[in-house]
Amino acid sequence: MFSSSTLLYPLSLFLSLSLLFLLSPHILLSSSRNNLLSTADELDDLSLFHRAALSSSNTRRLISLSHTPPPPPKIAFLFLTNSDLTFLPLWETFFQGHEHLYNAYIHADPSSTISPLLSSSSSINAKLIPSKKTARASPSLISAERRLIARAILDDPNNLYFALVSQHCVPLHSFPYIHNHLSNSHRSFVEILSDEPFLPNRYNARGFDALMPEIPYQDFRVGSQFFVLAKRHALIVIQERKLWRKFRLPCVDAESCYPEEHYFPTLLSLEDPQGCSPFTLTRVNWTGSVDGHPHTYGASEVSPQLIRMLRRSNSSLDYFFARKFSPESLQPLMEIADDVIFRD
Ligand SMILES: *[C@@H]1O[C@H](CO)[C@@H](O)[C@H](O)[C@H]1NC(C)=O
Ligand SMILES: *[C@@H]1O[C@H](CO)[C@@H](O)[C@H](O)[C@H]1NC(C)=O
Predict the structure, then answer these.
(1) Handedness of CA 152, 154, 156, 162 (dihedral sign)
(2) How is the protein disposed in the membrane (predicted)?
(3) Number of domains in the chain
């Protein structure tokens, strides 16, 4: 009895440990917040991206056969959110009267409280797209952004500009101002930085040299998450596979790893640096930032002077949007909307 149980115990321990060892990659992957994408999710996304690219090439063929002048371009507003849209009333005022020139899409984290009724009850008529889980410091935000782009391409062939915004963003100019400047630019606006002080840490955030050989250090770029893409770049982004295989790797250094701030700038600076303005159109205040979060403007800070100051940019264009604003700042922003924000 004694001898057999002493033998059995190490044996069962050995068996369970080896079982754990066999299964551990799956357990680790599925529990880590870094890797929220299952293979099924990836395949789902791939098929969506494929359909979007195909529909766009079919549309191009039809347009080249038709003799009527093309309709004016639409801007697709891509709302990426994990909470309710606090600033919806301000956006409704912004969009009012321009229904033929925009579409709005929402990717809301499945855990968020956003109401499925939003699309029907709000005048902006936003489409809530099928979403998957998202988290900071994980490639899940890249996937969500690509999903938004693909849905917008599929939904309306006249979506020619794709503007990413979050629930903390507010407009700084009127809709016609933004529409005119974008339709005359024919470019994308993606911040592309190569001289950021923490660039080496960010490059190695998935493990030392983990991005090699596809992305040598000298090709690596970073920039703001918030972009406006022209359609030709939106199509590149949803069809790209090589860089994605690297940028989808889980982060080992979460402090330096904001994959969505790496993937888009690196990809577009490799593919078409001349076709991109290396500036973002979304103003953010990093002075006194806490834990990777920028300064959040409170209600008492909102004033006409603040709006005018936030618009000022080093690029040839003013900033179009700004973040972040606290929920309480909605009221004072609404009060100055017509006289300041939407007066250009
Ligand atoms: C940026 O935020 C700081 C507080 O962190 C504030 O003092 C400063 O005025 C803000 N700058 C702008 C341009 O709003
Ligand atoms: C413009 O560039 C200067 C010099 O690099 C910088 O100090 C300033 O903060 C920039 N202004 C804005 C609005 O980004």
Answers:
(1) positive
(2) Single-pass type II membrane protein
(3) 1
The CATH number for 57's domain is 3.90.550
| Ligand whose nearest atom lies closest to the CA of 286 | 1
Q: How far, in Å, is the centroid of ligand 2 from the Cα of 116?
A: 41
pLDDT in tens, 106-135: 999 998 877 766 766 788 999 999 999 999
Quote the percentage of the chain above a pLDDT of 70: 88
Q: Is there a domain that residue 317 lies in?
A: no
**Is residue 267 included in any domain, yes or no?**
yes
Q: Say what the pTM is.
A: 0.89
Q: Ligand 2 centre from 314 Cα, in Å?
A: 6
- Give dist(CA 246, CA 29) in Å, integer: 16
- Residue 293 maps to a domain: no
In tens, the pLDDT along 262-314 reads 999 999 999 999 999 999 999 999 998 888 789 999 999 999 999 999 999 99
Contact 202, 262 (CB under 8 A): yes
pLDDT at residue 11 in the model:
45
Per the structure, the complete domain to which residue 116 belongs is given by 38-63+70-282
